[in-house]
Amino acid sequence: MIDIRPATIADAEVLALLGRVTYSESHGHFIDNNDDLMAYMETAFSVSKTKQDITDPKNRFYISYADDLPVGYAKLVLNSGYEDMHSENSCQLERIYILKDFIPLKIGQQFLTFLEAEAKALEFNTIWLSVYNKNERAIRFYQKNDFKDVGLSIFIVNGKAYENMVFSKDL
């Protein structure tokens, strides 16, 4: 059974670990240098950074569970816009990651549906995200879910730039 719950400060260690593992699984092979990958994960997915992010009122974290085992997480950033988007009432789906062994359970689809409902309940009319332009599986997933390509952004990993596509969806 799949369950999705809001995360709290008590979940910081679980979120940090899920962040490190899922980022490495989904993006590790795209990063040119393993030292850059490790340096990025040390910063982005430390327990202290995760605690700081959880306590920021503009962020909402959620954990997905399969039979009570944490298998994925997501982060919504409230009232976050993108320069080339015309919505003034949007939120960003900054992260949605599932452990690779659990991807075949279609947890990502359930999670995305849940997050879109959450964004609507919070009265946002647009949700947007960025995805690495070589991550074809993720790009197909968002296109299948009616996200539209609205631009480009640059994501920095330890000083190296990676071009991302920006997608948005009207809610």
From TrEMBL:
<keyword id="KW-0689">Ribosomal protein</keyword>
<dbReference type="Pfam" id="PF00583">
    <property type="entry name" value="Acetyltransf_1"/>
</dbReference>
<dbReference type="GO" id="GO:0005840">
    <property type="term" value="C:ribosome"/>
</dbReference>
<keyword id="KW-0012">Acyltransferase</keyword>
<keyword id="KW-0808">Transferase</keyword>
<keyword id="KW-0687">Ribonucleoprotein</keyword>
<dbReference type="InterPro" id="IPR016181">
    <property type="entry name" value="Acyl_CoA_acyltransferase"/>
</dbReference>
<dbReference type="InterPro" id="IPR000182">
    <property type="entry name" value="GNAT_dom"/>
</dbReference>
<protein>
    <submittedName>
        <fullName>Ribosomal protein S18 acetylase RimI</fullName>
    </submittedName>
</protein>
<feature type="domain" description="N-acetyltransferase">
    <location>
        <begin position="2"/>
        <end position="171"/>
    </location>
</feature>
<dbReference type="InterPro" id="IPR050832">
    <property type="entry name" value="Bact_Acetyltransf"/>
</dbReference>
<dbReference type="GO" id="GO:0016747">
    <property type="term" value="F:acyltransferase activity, transferring groups other than amino-acyl groups"/>
</dbReference>
